[in-house]
């Protein structure tokens, strides 16, 4: 798999998560508590969680005291979020109608790379309350032991690429994009060092779009080979969780 199109244009990958919704909710990591606390400085702030998936960030923000609305295009993902008692509206962000509502905080948790960024930023500007903020979140988990090169060889054996952080946060593309839309921004890092059991790691990485897009037989082979490579020791990892916190200059 060597498709370098922007991810939001690869609709087969963007719409692949519903098939693994239950596993996604169970095995995808939660965001560091300090990251969530920094986004909710007081109870009752109005938050819009865009591309909320199964409501992982939504639930954490609500637990911190926010009043959160989730918008999620995949009905299977949204059903799990709704089952947690979260407020969910099923729509793409492009098609979603805010009906005059505004928000103190708009969050894209692991989802900004799935929208057309210029269109999305214009819409964010329209729904932000005065002094409102935009937060782009990513958990960025990298294996330390076994090393990433060793695991990359397993992916290559089935013609797949290992999950990598979005290019929107790795190059110089993001900040100029935000500035052109009228946002100032800062990056905040929250580092964790989690350990995963072998089966837990395999379940987690098999919920990423690069794996879900493989034929079912190749997914099975990849899972088996990853488990064999990891063995009983599991995976020692680093999560360099990132918030890009943005303020609109009006």
UniProtKB/TrEMBL annotation:
GO terms for molecular function: methyltransferase activity. Transmembrane segments: none annotated. The keyword Methyltransferase applies. It holds the Pfam family Methyltransf_23. Keywords: Methyltransferase, Transferase. GO terms for biological process: methylation. This is Class I SAM-dependent methyltransferase. The lineage of its organism: Bacteria, Bacillati, Actinomycetota, Actinomycetes, Mycobacteriales.
